[in-house]
Every structure is written in structure tokens, then in C-alpha cells.
Amino acid sequence: MAFPLLDVRFAARAIAAGAVIAHPTESVWGLACDPFNRDAVERLLQLKNRPVAKGLILVSGDSDDFGGLLDNLSAEQRQKMTESWPGPVTWLVPHFGLVPPWISGDHHSVALRCTDHPFTAALAHAFGGPIVSTSANPGGCQPARSKYQVLRYFGDSLDFVGGGATGGRQSPSEIRDLVTGQVIRAG
After folding, report:
1. Which residues cross the membrane (predicted)?
2. Is residue 40 within 8 Å of residue 34, measured between CB atoms?
3. What are phi and psi of 112, to 5 degrees?
4. What pLDDT, in 10s, does the model give residues 88-130?
5. Owning domain of residue 179
6. Exposed, middle or buried by CB within 10 Å (0-12, 13-18, 19+), for 62?
7. Which of 13, 94, 156, 157 sits 20 to 30 Å CA-CA off 44?
8. CA-to-CA distance for 24 and 106, rounded, in angstroms?
9. How far out from the chain centre does Cα 90 lie?
10. ∠ CA 146-154-131 to the nearest 5 degrees?
């Protein structure tokens, strides 16, 4: 899947500066920002009309980017996660207070995904760590499956929209709870 490297660099610099951007993921378009920039996260939530209590997903192309969030997991738990990565599986893992409440919401866990989408993985790498990535749609609307649909939803309220096409998967990422093994959302 080809995409302009300049887009990756521009998008990563924009995120580092506090921007909210739209980018393709494995199945749908996503909205992304710096997870540790509270203003950016609040703006993203406002654009989506999403309550902070629901929490957000952190995405990277490299599981090492999740650092301390994986340190307290058992070898079996780590193996279970890494066997499904990179790919469209999001894991809920205990966050042990290592992420801000505007990321975890009302939960004791945080959602992590190691993506196999080339643009999204390159974007997190260029940014230097995991990014927030949540479906690009206002609450109650279907997730955007094209750049055109992103623009219809959000117009010029985003700082950057780009990165090529989605990975072509029809269903969103599966969400699994690492501690209980429960499938929260089938993929």
C-alpha cells in the first residue's frame, strides 16, 4: 500500500503540535491525536461527541511502544497479545495508573492495538510512540470508510486528512479483555 512519506511526516509533526487528524486504519478511517495532550484529546472527543468516560484506544505499529503498560503482564498474557499482533485485535489491559484518565475513561484498563496498517504504523513510529486512534465518525453515525466520508462528517475542522486507503477489512478491530479473556466486540 503506497502513501506519500511526506504525509506521514507532516501528520506526525501535526500530532506533536496538538493537532487532531484523520487517517486510514485496517478497516475504517480513524481520528488521531497525542494521547498525552489533554487539549487535543478533548477536541477529538468533542468532534466525535463521545464522552470521556468511554475511554480511547492507543495504537502503534510496535508493541515496544506500549512500554510499562506491558511490564506487569504474565508471560502467558504477553504471548496471547503478541500472537495476535500486528493486526486488528485490540486488547484491554490493566493500566496501573500509567495513562491519563482522559484516555482510560472510567476503566481500570486501557485499549491497546499494534496495527498492521502501513500508514498508521508509520505515523506512530514518526510520532515516536502510540497515538490515540478512534473511528472517524460523530456519535451515532457509521464509521467513515473513505476520505470523502471523513470530510463530509468533519469538513475543515480537522488539521490533516490523509494517508491513502484503509486496509480493506469489513469489520472493526476485535476487542478482547486480556484478564478475563472475554470478547467485548467481535471482529
Report:
1. none
2. yes
3. -125, 140
4. 899 999 999 999 999 999 999 999 999 999 999 999 999 999 9
5. 5-185
6. middle
7. 94
8. 27
9. 9
10. 75
**C-alpha cell belonging to residue 7:** 504525509
Pairing of strands 57-60, 183-185: unpaired
Side chain identity, residue 160: F
Peptide bond into 130 cis (omega under 30): no
The grid coordinates of residue 106 equal 472510567
- State the Cα–Cα distance between residues 156 and 146, nearest whole angstrom: 16
Residue 179 belongs to domain with CATH number? 3.90.870.10
Neighbouring CB atoms inside 10 A of 90's CB total 25
Closest among 170, 118, 119 to 143, alpha carbons compared: 170
Q: What is the pLDDT of residue 164?
A: 77
Read off the pTM. Answer: 0.93
What band does 7 get if pLDDT is binned at 50, 70 and 90?
confident
Backbone φ and ψ for 86, nearest 5 degrees, come out as: -70, 150
How much is the pLDDT for 4?
57
Q: What is the pLDDT of residues 19-56, one digit of tens each?
A: 999 999 988 999 999 999 999 999 999 999 999 999 99
Contact 109, 45 (CB under 8 A): no
pLDDT of 187 reads: 73
> How many distinct structural domains can be found in the chain?
1
Which letter does DSSP use for residue 142 in this model? P
